[in-house]
Amino acid sequence: MCLAMPMKINRIEGKTADCEAGGLVQAIRIDFIQDARPGDYVMVHAGFAIQKMSEKEALENLELLEEIRNAV
Amino acid sequence: MRYDCYFKNPERASELLEKIGVYASQAGRVRLMEICGTHTMAIARSGLRTVLPPEVRLISGPGCPVCVTPAGAIDMILELSERPGVLIASYGDLLRVPGSKRGDSLLSRRAGGAMVESVYSPMDAVRIAASRPELEVVFLGAGFETTAPGTAACILEAAEQKLENFSVLCLLKRTEPALRSLIEAPDFAVDGFLCPGHVAAVIGSDAFSFLPGDYGLPGVVSGFDPADLLGSVLELTRMIAEKRPGLKNEYIRLVQPAGNPLALSLMDEVFQTAPSDWRGLGQIRDSGYALREKYRPWDAWAKFGLRPALSGDIPGCRCAEVIRGTASPVSCPLFGRICTPEDPAGPCMVSGEGACAAAYQYGNSISQEEV
To answer: How far apart are CA B329 and CA B313, in angstroms?
Structure first.
């Protein structure tokens, strides 16, 4: 039940967004996502987006992993 | 997402493993506990246990919400499902969990005529209630802090729609009090924690700073892909070897130090902390959420005058010890013999996130034999 999935927002109507992942489109609630916009990626858990995900943060995360690997 | 593949296929994994090996031999023994069902499954699926050095053991803790719901609560829910006009809506996993009698679950009650629906989101339960005004719809709100804000949003939605036939049986649990109880128990034997990434997305990575702060134990908030897990295990092993416990956030692409403030304010509007019963850990103060007085009309505990039954676990079942990390799945006499995913005796075999289901499905529990 705790499975979370990253999805892309296609369209927003009020507190609900049409989100897509791997060809699957679902109506997801975005009650607690600030400034959600179409094109944003969100982590979805039990029908609710719990946090936004950005390209910048994904790249920073890769850098962090690189640092962990290279630290002596 | 575009960068997913980099996290799923870690580059130079052997280099990482070598470093883990170096630090592990310095530390002598590294026992790491994960406390999230999704981590349990991700670790089993990745085969991580089979490639880690022998000094490093990964132990599953109380991270599966279905597994930590005690048999007495399940018995109470089974009884509620028999009341005329009541429809139980729940996440699928919970439907198969037996109460204190083997084979007696919401699914078997449905076969006998009880109204039970499996839902993906608590909002589905609100929709059922709105379309079936003749029924009393009870949503089983199980889960940790990740599901708590969505459950709160549903209660607010039901209040806004003035839905009188909808209520939530709040079984939500909080991570920190359970961890404190586990750490303070005399049989605690863990050297560091893989902290749950999605719980932390809601409550923030700072919420786990009590691990090094109060107990001198290192923690790493980790993502769920193989690169995340390897990096987090390396960080933990390093902190243990260097005897410098701290809290690190490895999952920075999702987790902020303070979490999601909007989700937290929604939870605070609807819930207050309350004592909660855990399978394997007993009752722990402030370890659950209860609806605030203002939302009492949507509180199934109050609406139906419910009390958990005083029932024990199925004889022979070691789920309670598996949840505490003091017994491994394969050490249970029922494991794989009379308890299988097709015919589970205990909750850890039922749930897709349970330690026993993971051990059974992926079979790589070699290093779990003794914990």
So the answer is: 16
For A51, the closest of B66, B254, B266 (CB atoms) is: B254
Among candidate residues B242, B175, B194, B246, the one with its CA nearest the CA of residue B49: B194
- The complex scores an ipTM of 0.91
pTM of the model: 0.92
Residue ranges, comma separated, of all CATH 3.40.50.11740 domains in chain B are 1-317
The CATH T-level fold of domain A5-70 is: SH3 type barrels. (2.30.30)
pLDDT tens across the length of chain B (371 residues): 566 777 877 767 888 999 999 999 999 999 999 999 899 999 998 999 999 999 999 999 998 888 899 999 999 999 999 999 999 999 998 998 988 888 899 999 999 999 999 999 999 999 999 999 999 999 999 999 999 999 999 999 999 999 999 999 999 999 999 999 999 999 999 999 999 999 999 999 999 999 999 999 999 999 999 999 999 999 999 999 999 999 999 999 999 999 999 999 999 999 999 999 998 889 999 999 999 999 999 999 999 999 988 877 788 899 999 999 999 999 999 999 999 998 888 889 988 889 999 999 988 544 444 44
- Single-letter code of the amino acid located at B215: Y
Question: Is A48 within 8 Å of chain B by CB?
Answer: yes
Angle B222-B236-B64 from CA coordinates, rounded to 5°: 45
The domain segmentation of chain A, as residue ranges, is 5-70
A25 to chain B, any CB pair closer than 8 A? The answer is no
Closest CA to B32 of B307, B222, B304: B222
* CB spacing of B266 vs A41 below 8 angstroms: no
- Find the CB nearest B201 among A51, A58, A65: A51
Nearest residue, CB atoms, B254 vs list A53, A62, A65: A53
Pick the CATH number of B1-317 from 3.40.50.11740, 2.40.10.220, 1.10.10.10, 3.40.50.720: 3.40.50.11740
